[in-house]
From TrEMBL:
<dbReference type="InterPro" id="IPR011004">
    <property type="entry name" value="Trimer_LpxA-like_sf"/>
</dbReference>
<dbReference type="InterPro" id="IPR050179">
    <property type="entry name" value="Trans_hexapeptide_repeat"/>
</dbReference>
<dbReference type="Pfam" id="PF00132">
    <property type="entry name" value="Hexapep"/>
</dbReference>
<dbReference type="InterPro" id="IPR001451">
    <property type="entry name" value="Hexapep"/>
</dbReference>
<protein>
    <recommendedName>
        <fullName>Hexapeptide transferase</fullName>
    </recommendedName>
</protein>
<comment type="similarity">
    <text>Belongs to the transferase hexapeptide repeat family.</text>
</comment>
Length: 191
């Protein structure tokens, strides 16, 4: 069988899973049959991708992450080592709630740090950054930096992940941002 992605011999890829070209799936990972992954994704060691999960292009999933049904990650998302998604708001062992899974949307370019927990039903805005160990219980704005338990906004970050100062200019790229009505936006160069 000729495939356009790489899967380590210990990985389990269920028949029907859609996996884009250039994707790499490493040791002891499992991709369920109705999962969809774009091009050039990387699944680290011991990653689980559940049914109906959608991962865009260039999504990086680090070791020991389970991406459960209900999670959608757009392009260029980074999921840090051992971070956690939930998909039921009030789980009980004796009560089946598979018809109550809540959707969690991780928008383009977002980063979730190591050991962070994302409570189901939230949207993480474009290029936001969730600090290591944070517990996200509500939506996160685009470009926002959130940290702590529960996670609270502690700053703004650029598309390249640099913390922005008062001038809202990325110290690495020089990109400029504007803040209006509590929302940060990239100022597109007009040439």
């Amino acid at each position: 069988m000729n495939k356009e992605y790489y899967a380590h011999e210990t990985a389990i890829i269920d028949e029907g899973a859609q996996i884009g070209s250039g994707t790499k799936i490493w040791h002891f990972s499992h991709v369920m049959d109705s999962a969809q992954m774009g091009k050039n994704c990387i699944l680290g060691q011991n990653v689980f991708v559940g049914n109906k999960v959608k991962l865009g292009n260039n999504v990086k999933v680090q070791n020991n992450v389970s991406v459960y049904e209900g999670v959608i990650c757009e392009d260029d998302v980074f999921l840090g080592p051992s971070m956690v998604f939930t998909n039921v708001i009030n789980p009980r062992s004796s009560v089946e709630r598979k018809d109550e899974f809540k959707t969690t949307l991780v928008k383009r370019g977002a980063t979730i740090g190591a050991n962070a927990t994302i409570i189901c039903g939230v949207t993480l805005g474009e290029y936001c950054m969730v600090g290591a160990g944070a517990v996200v219980t509500k939506d996160v704005k685009a470009f926002a930096l959130v940290t702590g338990v529960p996670a609270k906004q502690t700053g703004w970050v650029s598309r390249s992940g640099e913390i922005l100062g008062d001038d809202l200019t990325c110290p690495k790229t020089g990109e400029k941002y504007s803040l209006k009505n509590g929302k940060l936006k990239l100022i597109e160069n007009e040439e």
